[in-house]
Amino acid sequence: MTTQNTPPRPTPPHARPVQQIPHPSVRVDPVPTAQRAVAPDVARGLALLGIAIANSVIHLAGGAVGLGLRPVDSSAVDRAVDLVVSLFVDRRTMPMFALLYGYGIGVVVRRRAAAWVPWPACRADLLRRAAVLVAFGAAHVLLLFEGDILGAYGLAGLLAVAFVRASDRTLLVTAALVLPVTGLIGGAMGGGIVLKEMFGGAEFVLPAEESPLLAVATRAMSGLVGAPLGAVVAVPLVLLGLWAARREILERPADHVRLLRRTTLVGLAVSVLGAVPFATAVARLRDPSALDAFGSAMLHEMTGVVGGVAFAALVGWVVAARGTTLTTLGPVGRALRAVGTRSLTCYLLQSVLFVLPLAAWAGGLGTHLGSAQVVAWAVGVWLVTVAVAVSLEAAGRRGPAEWLYRRLVYGHPTTV
After folding, report:
1. What is the pLDDT of residues 249-303, one digit of tens each?
2. Between 20 and 30 A from 244 (CA), which of 204, 253, 366, 393?
3. Tens digit of pLDDT for each residue in 203-253?
4. Distance CA 149, CA 134 (A)
5. CA of 179: how far to CAs of 78, 154, 165, 188, 202, in Å?
6. How many C-alpha atoms does 95 have within 13 Å on its Cβ side?
7. Measured distance CA(208)–CA(147) in Å, rounded
8. What are phi and psi for residue 71, nearest 5 degrees?
9. Phi, psi at residue 30, to the nearest 5°?
């Protein structure tokens, strides 16, 4: 099924004859906002809500924490919130965003292939885009937030360039082979905190760093370690996104309803069931051993990948089932789409709205909040970004971060 808002299907880039030469005047401009597909942008807007909630706990400091970096001294309401967030949000929405990042790379490649842009020029374009994203991530870490994902995704994008012209089988097999490594990383990061019992039982305390300069140094060290590890975790999703983009699964969801429905139902079931052991430990409904915590965190990470794919499929399924187009989007859908088309701006704005009021070196409010309160703050932060995105949409303007990103990537307009 083809709608008026979706372009005709081009031949997949890996199937193109290499002898073709583009016309000298061909130029590949950004897809006009009015022609962008509905599902990917709506999914990005929804993913940013999950990212705000998942990141919120990182902004608490000054107290002892347990699994999932949740405060040990918490109320029953806090523990209930920790349970829900661990079941449905943690390690689930970020994989969804990584999938959509890979999907975006696939769309870029497909549009350049449709314009007969030669592979060396397309590859250089992809490398610049990923490198600039790494630079954005580095600045984000140094200025604001140690939990940045931009640098990790940029590094994953650099790796993904080697697979852009690979076969579908290679994409899927490579993603499957890397997935256990992501599980090991997730297990070490998520369950490692229990190892405190092996070192005299000392509680792990998140530092409340009050010195801005020392906070920068701490974030820089965290970024040096976190970005490469995050890139490895993101690679399977980015490759899967490339695979999905070749089939235009989210751009033409009506053509893939059966796949989307099955992925949603099976994926969400696997995601929730796989999250139960870790989530119940995070909510302190049980007291796991170090080995149990590591295994539960590993399972939580790996099934979170499935959950991220399932959430993206759910958006596509809903769009297809409702026959949604740009002209029939309701107010909520339009707001989510406005955020999704300005995801870089909204993501960075989240950090500003978290860090300046909550960080110990800034407003300091993070030392006085619990899990439930900081999650409520996260929802409020996301709503502010929605208001900003909707205002920019009404004014017909891109987000400032998107404008700067494209300027750094492309500089002066070029013609292929």
Report:
1. 999 999 999 999 999 999 999 999 999 999 999 999 998 888 888 889 999 999 9
2. 393
3. 566 666 677 888 888 888 888 888 999 999 999 999 999 999 999 999 999
4. 9
5. 31, 19, 21, 14, 33
6. 30
7. 16
8. -60, 135
9. -60, 150
Report whether 34 contacts 355 (CB < 8 A).
no
Is the distance from CB of 49 to CB of 85 less than 8 angstroms?
Answer: no
Q: For residues 80 and 384, give the distance between their C-alpha atoms in angstroms, rounded to a whole number.
A: 25
Question: Where do the structural domains in the chain lie, given as residue ranges?
Answer: 36-410
HSE of 157, CA atoms in CB hemisphere, 13 A: 30
Tokens for 387, please give them: 């208001």
Burial profile 297-319: b = 16 or more Cβ within 10 angstroms, e = fewer = bbbbbbbbbbbbbbbbbbbbbbb
Its pTM surpasses 0.90:
no
Give the pair of three-digit tokens for residue 92. 């689930």
User: Are the beta carbons of 42 and 330 closer than 8 angstroms?
Assistant: no
- Bridge partners (DSSP) listed for residue 64: 205
Backbone angles phi, psi at 119, to 5 degrees: -60, -45
Residue 100 makes CB contacts below 8 A (sequence gap 6+) with 40, 43, 44, 47, 241, 312
Q: How far apart are CA 267 and CA 264, in angstroms?
A: 5
Determine the Cα–Cα distance for residues 238 and 153; give it in Å rounded to an integer. 8
* Three-state helix/strand/coil letters over the chain: CCCCCCCCCCCCHHHCCCCCCCCCCCCCCCCCHHHCCHHHHHHHHHHHHHHHHHHHHHHCCCCEECHHHCECCCCHHHHHHHHHHHHHCCCCHHHHHHHHHHHHHHHHHHHHHHCCCCHHHHHHHHHHHHHHHHHHHHHHHHHCCCCCCHHHHHHHHHHHHHHCCCCHHHHHHHHHHHHHHHHHHHHHHHHHHHHHHHHCCCCEECCCCCCHHHHHHHHHHHHHHHHHHHHHHHHHHHHHHHHHHHCCCCCCHHHHHHHHHHHHHHHHHHHHHHHHHHHHHHCCCCCCCHHHHHHHHHHHHHHHHHHHHHHHHHHHHHHHHHCCCCCCCCHHHHHHHHHHCCHHHHHHHHHHHHHHHHCCCCCCHHHHCCHHHHHHHHHHHHHHHHHHHHHHHHCCCCCHHHHHHHHHHHCCCCCC
Alpha-carbon gap, residue 336 to 330, rounded angstroms:
10
Crossing angle for the helix pair 371-394 and 331-340, to the nearest 10 degrees: 90
- Position 54, amino acid: A
357: amino acid identity, one letter: P
